[in-house]
Amino acid sequence: MADRHRVGIAVLGGTTALDLAVAVQAFGRRPAVFHRIRPEPESPYEITLCGRAGVPTFGELRPMSELAAADTVVVPGVDDPLAARDPEVLEAIAVAAERGARLLSLCAGAFVLGYAGVLHGHRVTTHWALADDFRAEFPRVELAEHELYVDDGQVLASGGMLAAADLCLHVLRTDHGQAYANDMSRLLVSPPHRTGGQSQYSKVIDRPLTGSLAPVLEWMLAHLDEPLTLRSVAAHAHMSTRTLARRFRAETGQSLLDWVVMRRVERARELLEESDLTVTQIAYAAGFGSTESLRRHFLLSSGTSPGAYRATFRLAAG
Amino acid sequence: MADRHRVGIAVLGGTTALDLAVAVQAFGRRPAVFHRIRPEPESPYEITLCGRAGVPTFGELRPMSELAAADTVVVPGVDDPLAARDPEVLEAIAVAAERGARLLSLCAGAFVLGYAGVLHGHRVTTHWALADDFRAEFPRVELAEHELYVDDGQVLASGGMLAAADLCLHVLRTDHGQAYANDMSRLLVSPPHRTGGQSQYSKVIDRPLTGSLAPVLEWMLAHLDEPLTLRSVAAHAHMSTRTLARRFRAETGQSLLDWVVMRRVERARELLEESDLTVTQIAYAAGFGSTESLRRHFLLSSGTSPGAYRATFRLAAG
């Protein structure tokens, strides 16, 4: 018993129950039904939930010093990732990192690792919808927002919510082999390996169109199915192409062409989900001009094909 | 507020934290990040966790009478599905059913609905590894063990563990449309629609080969790659085909041919997961005689093709 791998799980104010439950299920006591799938007297991991008394959770909470002493530290997501964190948690994580402990962040847990100062030089991921906040807060940490999870050696991170299952299965595979991870996947009824990454689940987060270009952007959205170039938009807006290019980047953070492609992919996604149009019809309706162009841009930004996307996000009979 | 749809969730001794967390996430308060994906002032559901004080869980527990009064009753899985249940829970479920409430069981929660006596004439599913127990306990309830979830009108049931997410997304789609369910799926980073059903996650649960045929079964397992017919096995075992057929069914519950096919599919699965053999080589090694025969039987029993199965359960570099 004493030499089981110790997994310390940080339970903070606002910890996401679902992330926490995934980690507890992957590493903690096996439910009775698991023994039918794989005879195993006990989990190869010994888990400890660490946090301050009073944080509502399932299971007893132990002091943060036990987090600092764990072989693997797991930090589940928290509801408000930008909120100030208890210095005791950040300290425990830093001590564990110093000792060489493996560090796992789930979903917004990457922010907590960031505030603990242990992500320097590391590559991580987090919930796709938090990517902009993460980059703003930790400009020197490499963010792989398209990945379901990232294994960067000492630091491992998963994307949003149930991507935690993908990361935990990856850790079980690393520690105990593919067959072991497959059996846990059979218990969870969740695939041991998902294709296509996190980006197929993302969508453009609409920010209100403000700034002086707002009317131009509105007009572009209404004419996405037409050819939109710097030149044609500048003509519509009565600006020089140079002025438009400069102001476009200043106000949207993107080039005009990148912005147009992003919006066209988003339009294509909506039509794949909600319409009965064929992929070719959608290519034209979204302004791609050809099916090939749609496929190429869709794959680049979503990690999957238009057809596979539709199969996942649209049911024939709703 | 008062007219939000009320979801009552039964929290019992041994309730699976993961199932509970999925239901809470799908129906309960939306995390801050959800508002970026979909502006929504509050969840359209009002959830209540109902259970006896002292059951460890997250969130306040309310009396079972509130479960009886809910519009939708959710029963998450429990660690020991065959354990005796608190009569108060069973009564509350029966009262809710009588009132016409929608009933959702997650994983082993189907057993609790069964003991509450509300499954008569219904079609449900449960964790694939509990299928035999379920059939033995509730012989008159139709069990669709291959399905990730079943929507049978008033009663809806999901298979093992994370199939709960599939069912909850289905309910969101039914109640609030595909676009709503898709946005929840983007929050969860979990597909709104999975193909292939639950059976691709299952495997043959090995029971010790006991009974007088044990040596024969052992011999068959060692010769799966050879033609195995009632006649050839009977010759090996020095029995008449009629005696063998009768004893085979009595001891295994299956015909000899069904048993052989099941074991061959299992052998093919193992080789797809663990070997570098081609699908054709695996077809022969598992005794199918042809790739076509492997494909047909594999699809029938796993709901997926050998190639797709390998892509999910085997990573090139473990």
From TrEMBL, chains A, B:
<dbReference type="InterPro" id="IPR052158">
    <property type="entry name" value="INH-QAR"/>
</dbReference>
<keyword id="KW-0805">Transcription regulation</keyword>
<dbReference type="InterPro" id="IPR018062">
    <property type="entry name" value="HTH_AraC-typ_CS"/>
</dbReference>
<dbReference type="Pfam" id="PF01965">
    <property type="entry name" value="DJ-1_PfpI"/>
</dbReference>
<dbReference type="InterPro" id="IPR009057">
    <property type="entry name" value="Homeodomain-like_sf"/>
</dbReference>
<dbReference type="InterPro" id="IPR002818">
    <property type="entry name" value="DJ-1/PfpI"/>
</dbReference>
<dbReference type="Pfam" id="PF12833">
    <property type="entry name" value="HTH_18"/>
</dbReference>
<feature type="domain" description="HTH araC/xylS-type">
    <location>
        <begin position="214"/>
        <end position="312"/>
    </location>
</feature>
<dbReference type="GO" id="GO:0003700">
    <property type="term" value="F:DNA-binding transcription factor activity"/>
</dbReference>
<keyword id="KW-0238">DNA-binding</keyword>
<protein>
    <submittedName>
        <fullName>Transcriptional regulator GlxA family with amidase domain</fullName>
    </submittedName>
</protein>
<dbReference type="InterPro" id="IPR029062">
    <property type="entry name" value="Class_I_gatase-like"/>
</dbReference>
<keyword id="KW-0804">Transcription</keyword>
<dbReference type="GO" id="GO:0043565">
    <property type="term" value="F:sequence-specific DNA binding"/>
</dbReference>
<dbReference type="InterPro" id="IPR018060">
    <property type="entry name" value="HTH_AraC"/>
</dbReference>
